[in-house]
Amino acid sequence: MDEPAREDGRQPVLELRRLCKSFGGLKAVHEVSLRVMAGDRKAIIGPNGAGKTTLFNVITGVFPATSGQVLLFGQDVTRWPSHRRIGRGLARTFQVTSLFPKLTVLDNVLLAIEGLRLSKFVMWRPLSSYRDVYERAHALLQEAAFQDRRDVEVRNLSHGEQRQLEIVLGLASNPKILLLDEPAAGLSSGESAEMVRFLARLDQHLAILLIEHDMNVVFDVAKHISVLHFGEILEAGTTDAISRSTKVQQIYFGTG
Prior knowledge:
10 strands, 32% helix, 23% strand
């Protein structure tokens, strides 16, 4: 069943309807409902074991949902495999970096783009002949202000720059919504601040949903926060409302 258009004519990029995921008797995700519109910057926070990464895995098709629905642009994709969801406009990054450290920044981006195409590189054809792939790669690097590092081997980038590059690779599929799984994980305070600036430079029409433990990053990037606790949405609201919530402070921050 397709999602009817909203009164303002807009439709959610992503919608979760009472989404559940159980592992035997464990309800890792329970009745989670969420809407993300084009250009939204939303975050999901919660203590370790709250079900955040499991939720992302269900949204992206890594895990099948036990019940409920995942909709992209109003289309039910709950039973779709991950690659079909990518084709529909969904992209995701992971907590652990998965780059090719001995290749250059440009080579990593080229491989990410080519990996999404039906045709593949031919070993006897020079790479320079793939003009459209190169143009797309340079455009991505330009948009992300990474052009000056295109010829640098990834292993020579700082950890913060590697995390940013992973997001650039996530943009290779030209997504409409980007799921970021702890983009500031392992970063110093200075690198986290640079990550915030990097995310602010991304296309404002791109919807972003992130999981993050660094509250400074969450409050600087997100406009709306959902608090996950034992697989359920405990509370949701603006960043100001969540920062003032006594319930959230008691359960998530361990105060009160």
